[in-house]
Amino acid sequence: MPAAEAQGTVPAPAPYLAECPWMDTSKSPDERARVLLDASSLGQKYRWLVEQPANDPTTTAFGTVQYEAQLPCTPRVVYTDGPDGVRFTEGVTAFPAPIALGATWNRDLVFDKSAAQAAEAFDKGKNVVLGPGIASGRIPLSGRTAEYFGEDSLLSGTLAGAAIRGIEEGNPDKPVLSNVKHYVANEQEVSRNASSSNIDERTLRQAYDLPFEITIAEGEPESIMCSYNQINGVYACENPLLKDTLRDKLGFDGYVMSDFGAVHSTAPSLKAGLDQELNRPIYYTPTLLNQALAKGEITEDHVDDAAFNVVRSYIRGGLFDTPLPAAAPGSVSTTAHKDLARQAVEEGTVLLKNDGILPLSSTPKTIAVIGPTASKTPTNGVSAKDACSMSWRFGSPNTLTCESIVTIEDAIRQRAAAEGSNVVFDNGSDPQRAAAVAAKADVTIVVGYYKSGEFSDLPNLRLAGNGDALIDAVGAASPRTVAILQTGSAVEMPWLGKTEAVLESWYAGEQQGPALANLLWGDVNPSGKLPMTFPASLADTPTRTPAQYPGIYSNGSTTAPVGASEIRQVNYTEGLAIGYKWYQSQGIKPLFGFGHGLSYTDFEYRNLRVKPMVDKKTGNTALDVKFQIKNTGKTAGAEVGQVYLTLPSAAGEPGKRLVGFEKVTLKPNQTTQVHLVIDATGSDHPLSIWDADSDEWTTPTGEFTLEVGSSSQALPLRSSVTVR
């Protein structure tokens, strides 16, 4: 707020207010948007309905499509893809992938990282970030799992909300809007443009809408992107869900933009609630809009509503009032941003297993570092850059350029030199040669990876580049082997018994080396917790039939009939039983459960107290939850206390659900009390189920069981309460 306004005085009108009254900042964003649109012709309103003409007000021709000249005093806007960082741009920080941020369970860190990313975007001449991303983790094979925060609605919705606030509120002098993607049930890359996610209403609301509802409540995003796929036979960008659910039930009041190429109609999309077509004009051209008006398929009110949603968000987000600068040359990354990137790796790396080898001692020793992604030097075309960020598509460059990457090999060499240790490196191309190197070392650090990204799903959950054989051979040769995994999703580990320790570091960005060295030597105590389940085998996952994944065609096959243009039918018949709820409901033991993550110290949970509270006026119920966490070890560390709730059996829920979490840092022998209020009216509806018949959330009566601990599978505290 300008100083004059803060003191209660009204600043003198700018000279251009007579010509551009929509620039009067004493008016509300709604009023300013209305003033602008009232002064606009129909053709000028059309411009707001497509990214290119909306964001480039001085241009009238976009390809072969001609537009009217725009009104003055409208902003230049530049979109950038950016769930992980400012994509395809040099001179910015390569932050870890969102799945790594999910593993931090740290709202404040996600906010800070997102604010840093938004500042870099603005400095590079971009003021709308297409991110964060949300999915529900239905299939660990999904190529874009690394873009999301995990499989749980509360965790991903809360962290996405923090990301939005970081982007939109973290730099008042550098306004940037966020765009949450992809709404909704966009859970696979296979046939993403030509598949229908077929879901019953309760599952849709509880499992796939819910993270968006939490995100909207937590972050209040200015825009949301509709997805490629159909939902129950209707494309997302022309689906009634955009108004009936996204706006009316979830409370979204920004603008809806399409994914690129996700629009399939003019009138149906506009009437359903799609406000802006991404990139170039295809279905929202002046010619097609005029034809739809002439035929009575749409009205001018439909155009006006869509334009209003876009303009209001641009004004409300500050894009009208702060001109976008030209892209700064060179690097806009800062020391503080690099520190954030390193901290995110340190907090997001998950210690899956440790038989006592970690942390490494500082006595002189020989350390073997093995694996192609540990080094800058390519081996068969693979180097550290390949596991720095997710791929855009297989065979293409990664989403982040990672030109400032510090590799695992380089960081370990630097640390080893300080203590007088010797480092030997092997690229891992020959497992037996690598095993011989490992056999002569005191400690072996072997790095495994696979690449994943947009446009295709993973074929399996195995390491690439013969990685399983490499770790197996190295582990057999060296009894002191630590495996570091660089992946975007879960991993099967047939070699697990031959390692003493396993760290999942995900796609860890440019500061991976220093962060992992700090973790290996115990300068930083691991605190990451899995944001998704790691199955023992792909066969254990919930989508076991072709009809569930990848989906089938009319011939009953996963291959479309020859010459036919069909929509693949993907049936979500597993219902609510996805993620950790599937494993609980089926009694299947995963390799590593949701929320799992070890530390170099020990934590004890004690003194759980649960007090039901009922508001006498509204009848709303809340659970007041208190418990203690004590660091019983000899090392300071952070722990994520997790609260799970099992609803009464009549609710028909598969297993327990996460209803609260808190990350605390404790010194040795220190105890803290965690206090959470599980409110039935919260955006995550913790005590409720969706009743499709009554079209509302309902709280079942009966016994609710609340459990507290360090993961979904380690819950030592338990209490039951009855809700009437």
Set down the secondary structure blueprint:
Blueprint: H1 3-6, H2 29-38, H3 42-47, H4 51-55, E1 61-62, E2 65-66, E3 79-81, H5 98-102, H6 107-123, E4 128-133, H7 153-169, E5 177-183, E6 195-198, H8 201-219, E7 223-226, E8 230-231, E9 234-235, H9 241-247, E10 255-258, H10 267-272, H11 286-294, H12 300-316, H13 335-348, E11 350-354, E12 366-370, H14 408-419, E13 422-426, H15 431-439, E14 443-449, H16 467-477, E15 481-486, E16 501-504, H17 512-520, E17 568-571, H18 580-586, E18 603-614, E19 621-631, E20 637-646, E21 657-666, E22 671-679, E23 689-691, E24 696-698, E25 702-709, E26 717-723
Helix pairs in contact: 2-12, 6-7, 6-13, 7-8, 13-17, 14-17, 15-16
Describe the structure.
The protein is of the alpha/beta class. Helices cover 25% and strands 20% of the residues. The protein has a 6-stranded mixed sheet with strand order 11-16-15-14-12-13, with helices on both faces. α2 packs across α12 and α15 packs parallel to α16 (467-477). The longest helix has 19 residues, at 201-219. The model is unreliable at 1-12 (pLDDT under 50).
